């Protein structure tokens, strides 16, 4: 799933490509992706793109004051086309195409979603906060207003909840998902199961610094890259996420995994848990 750094890079790339271009039409090829009906999708036709921004993991294309909001979910992506087919895109169950944005110069943007689990979402709204997921977002971790005191308050309110889950909850912090929560906890040398309200002042500072550094570095690496290269860039710079069984780049220990019903986390025992292996919930159930 694209997270804050990739969505920020997409917003910057698309802003350069779309701004001041007129939208001819938006074709919906997978009707399940369109989550709103007022304004209608046809309201975008003829509008000029004023810019592209980000809210957490949401992309916001401002079309003359009407907002086309995209949430790419787990398997969604956008693909720039220098030339799009002249005929409108049609629904096709075998195609990954979910929607197509056609511009006045014949170029356009394909919004795609791989796999059979369809969770990509597209909204047409007058105000971004009309999208529930945006309205309930927590603070952006790269905003100037995201201070260490803001992080302290988030963790204290979470009580003894596991810190990884707290950090990836969009209502607590906007934009951090499964991958970057693994990465920044590894950078902070902190167990993903550590209770959120148990941090010392020194640990809080270390975690805050890791959040800002890991995400800022990822944004800088991604900035200027085309959408086609962002996934590879993200994967190539992961220290532990998605690297189960490989050597930790910091200490050389083997990266371990904890699996859940629909996701998993990766961590380094030496760097993060004092050498202790965390219980793999899925394996524990099988052994009972």
From TrEMBL:
Catalytic reactions on record: Hydrolysis of DNA containing ring-opened 7-methylguanine residues, releasing 2,6-diamino-4-hydroxy-5-(N-methyl)formamidopyrimidine
Every FPG-type domain range: 239-273
InterPro entries, alphabetized: FPG_cat, FPG_N, H2TH_FPG, Ribosomal_uS13-like_H2TH, Znf_DNA_glyclase/AP_lyase, Znf_FPG/IleRS
Domain Formamidopyrimidine-DNA glycosylase catalytic: 2-120
Gene Ontology terms: biological process: base-excision repair
Keyword terms, alphabetized: DNA damage, DNA repair, DNA-binding, Glycosidase, Hydrolase, Lyase, Metal-binding, Multifunctional enzyme, Zinc, Zinc-finger
Gene3D superfamilies according to UniProt: 1.10.8.50, MutM-like, N-terminal (3.20.190.10)
Keyword Aminoacyl-tRNA synthetase recorded: no
GO molecular-function terms, A-Z: 8-oxo-7,8-dihydroguanine DNA N-glycosylase activity; damaged DNA binding; DNA-(apurinic or apyrimidinic site) endonuclease activity; lyase activity; zinc ion binding
Cofactor needs: Zn(2+)
Family of the protein in this entry: Belongs to the FPG family.
Protein name per Swiss-Prot or TrEMBL: Fpg/Nei family DNA glycosylase
UniProt lineage: Bacteria, Bacillati, Actinomycetota, Actinomycetes, Propionibacteriales
